[in-house]
Design brief:
about 425 residues; about 20% strand; elongated; binds histidyl-adenosine monophosphate
């Protein structure tokens, strides 16, 4: 027996129905916020991903050499590909450029529930706008996308790498030490962070204060701690203005400031954020994003960029976990020719109804009315039309409402009117 490769999944029709439902919801929300869709290749030149993160990232990638000797990688995410495409083809477009995407991503992760080697992201990038109102809209979009799918229990946490940088400066931490500390902060491993800070010769009292600041949601407390650092003070002011827009104009109040949000990827600068579905446990992070710098690294002219990506698979897990009722798979009409002579007329009716926008199928196995009705039930059919010789002589058919079981005989030209009524 063959099986799907480790960390990948098949999606059978009931699952695809749910995935397409969420995708349509999200595409409509992106469009309503003025975003246009973009698509990039599934694989890219390996260098696109090593340019910022270095060779060590290769361990986490599906990287390979093709028959022409090119070093390639299946994309682990879409920000670098979208920015590559921007630098190649879109730099002259009017700003801001608002782009959204759906795409499969590949990471050589250890698979577990909510963590796959092939997974889908729904994300966006905004290029050329970094005002507080633009950033507030980006946060609002991420939150609204998830809410519009029907999710109830989500948490938006907002951090800021420029402020964390300022604190590192204040503590006189070397760049290498900073790099070593970030994973502890990212994973909220504060006991390990305390030990690591002491290894960097930070006094216990100072380390405790710093860890407290990473965990506080009180902006005033953060303000006091960074007082005297003009870059951090300006960044915090901007963050406050952004949050005011988020709360008072976009009416999103369910957020927490958390400087311990530092993101795992190397390209972020300034404001960063994550949205969690706490019920999912270890793999609870549904969305991650923020402001970042890649354009000049890829040879383009400096321009502000920010964006986020939602883990599509985790969103579906979270919806299932909340018991969300997805619209079921269904078929509008099923047509049953009573004998083979009825096939031609039946197919003509099928085609006419399809051209009118109904979803229609017909019995292709000549299995009689009883079995056909049973099969129609398994397909969640609303209406069955039975085409029999006696009725057809009078240019009529029998139409059955599958919910009520009511049946009536109607003239063929009446079918369309009758169906449009239901
Ligand atoms: P990321 O946090 O690496 O950010 O991924 C975004 C989301 O993808 C995560 O929050 C998670 O829900 C989902 N995800 C990541 N890895 C896996 C996996 N192995 N299995 C299932 N789901 C996963 C980015 O990728 C950035 N490009 C986001 C961004 C866009 N930043 C700016 N613009």
């Amino acid at each position: 027996m063959f099986q799907v490769p480790r960390g990948t999944r098949d999606f059978i029709p009931e699952e695809m129905q749910k995935r397409r439902y969420v995708e349509h919801c999200m595409a409509a929300t992106f469009a309503s916020f003025g975003y246009s869709e973009i698509q990039t290749p599934t694989f890219e030149n390996l260098e696109l991903f090593t340019a910022k993160s270095g060779e060590s990232i290769i361990n986490e990638l599906y990287a390979f050499t093709d028959k022409g000797g090119r070093e390639l990688a299946l994309r682990p995410e879409l920000t670098a590909p979208v920015i590559r495409c921007y630098v190649e083809r879109l730099q002259m477009e009017p700003k801001p450029l608002k782009l959204f995407y759906f795409g499969n991503c590949y990471r050589y992760d250890r698979p577990q529930k909510g963590r796959y080697r092939e997974f889908q992201q729904a994300g966006c990038e905004i290029i050329g706008a970094n005002t507080c109102e633009a950033t507030a809209e980006l946060l609002a979009l991420a939150f609204t996308l998830l809410k519009n799918t029907g999710l109830k229990n989500i948490q938006l946490n907002i951090g800021n790498l420029s402020i964390v940088d300022a604190i590192f400066r204040k503590l006189h931490l070397l760049k290498d030490d900073q790099k070593a500390l970030l994973p502890f902060i990212d994973k909220s491993q504060f006991d390990d962070l305390q030990i690591a800070l002491q290894d960097c010769n930070i006094l216990q009292e100072t380390a405790e204060k710093f860890i407290g600041i990473l965990q506080t949601s009180d902006v005033e407390e953060i303000k006091e701690f960074i007082a005297g650092d003009p870059i951090a003070e300006k960044e915090l002011d901007n963050m406050k203005t952004t949050l005011d827009f988020l709360k008072n104009a976009f009416h999103i109040v369910e957020y927490t400031v958390k400087l311990s949000i530092v993101r795992g990827l190397d390209y972020y600068k300034g404001l960063v954020f994550e949205i969690d579905a706490p019920a999912l446990g270890a793999e609870k992070q549904l969305c991650g994003g923020g402001t970042y710098e890649l354009v000049s690294l890829f040879g383009g002219s400096e321009v502000p960029t920010s964006g986020f990506a939602i883990g599509f698979d985790r969103t579906l897990l979270a919806l299932d976990g909340e018991g969300f009722m997805f619209p079921p798979l269904k078929l509008d009409v099923y047509i049953v020719p009573v004998n083979p002579e009825m096939n031609a007329t039946s197919i003509q009716i099928v085609q006419e109804l399809r051209s009118q926008g109904f979803t229609v199928d017909f019995d292709q196995l000549q299995r009689g009315i009883g079995k056909s009705l049973k099969y129609a039930n398994t397909r969640n059919v609303e209406t069955v039309i039975i085409v029999g010789p006696k009725e057809l002589e009078k240019n009529m058919v029998t139409i059955r409402d599958m919910k009520t079981g009511n049946q009536e005989t109607i003239a063929i030209p009446e079918i369309y009117k009758t169906l449009h009524k239901t």
